[in-house]
Amino acid sequence: MENKTLRNTQDENGLKNRVIRVGTRKSQLARIQTDSVVEMLRKRYLNLHFEIVAMSTTGDKILDTALSKIGEKSLFTKELENALERNEVDLVVHSLKDLPTSLPPGFTIGAICKRENPHDAVVFHPKNYGKTLNSLPEKSVIGTSSLRRAAQLKRRFPQLEFKDIRGNLNTRLKKLDEKEDFSAIILAAAGLRRMGWENRIGQILNPEDCLYAVGQGALAVEVRARDEEILDMVSALHDGETVLCCIAERAFMRHLEGGCSVPVAVSSMLKDSQLYLTGAVYSLDGSDSLKDTMQTGVNYPQQNEEGPNDDTQYVGITAKNIPRHAQEAAENLGVELASLLLSKGAKRILSVARQLNDAR
């Protein structure tokens, strides 16, 4: 406890004349997520002052086109990163799944907070309360803007139909409730829980039904890589287990050269110093897929690590307080699993999916 207090005092002394400006999207969920991160920082650094700067991103403005069709990798991050580059904000809070696996030069993920439930959830139209996807009438229409969700659920529930739905959580729930277009919609459980709408969750999709998105359920704090004071300050928020799982997931995605324009999905778990990663790729209709699981020893947590790590980034993440060997093992696990799927034909599946998506 003494070391933590001393470190916090040192950090505050270096930053005490600065107002820490925190960038975020304007949506209600983004503000709730950002407020939670700022509250964690306030509790650790009692003498610092934080100011939240909200702005709209490309992904927030384009609401009539499927995300996978827009062709921009940084839909929900570009404007925030521009503000970070211009020193208009000192850090930015993102949903980690919105951050590409390769960040622009000069930026790093300085913190990944403890992960909320990463699974997908089904929210049913009021007339379908108490049902599951399997018990819905044949040809029921399910709303999702995610190729990943649609591909897996078409494969798992071929009797259902799937249709794009865009907008923030509030907008999508309103479309579901007030119209008869959808029998249910698929959303991230984490977002619903953070909004206080857990009672709307009618079904949690387990990994057998639907693997989740890379980084789903985790919040990331992006900073300028050379701003050591801010980087040291936010690093207190790192959750080691979440970091290692997300490094493996992001390394898997990067090695596959995947993104929101192709269906790539994961599930990960750290248990008894073993890191498990399941990864999969799908054709757009779910008829063609490759899926496998690998594991590696990460020996984490390790109490006798000698000294802090350097500023080495692992898939865009800087985590000085987490053993380097564990981060390297996590990254290697993601790369090895991706290489395994590529050796079995994943590149062909992804190429066809990308071409079909572009042609739609």
TrEMBL record:
This is Porphobilinogen deaminase. One of its GO terms (biological process) is heme A biosynthetic process. Its main location: cytoplasm. GO terms for cellular component: cytosol. Residues 244-296 form the Porphobilinogen deaminase C-terminal domain. Pfam families: Porphobil_deam, Porphobil_deamC. Belongs to the HMBS family.
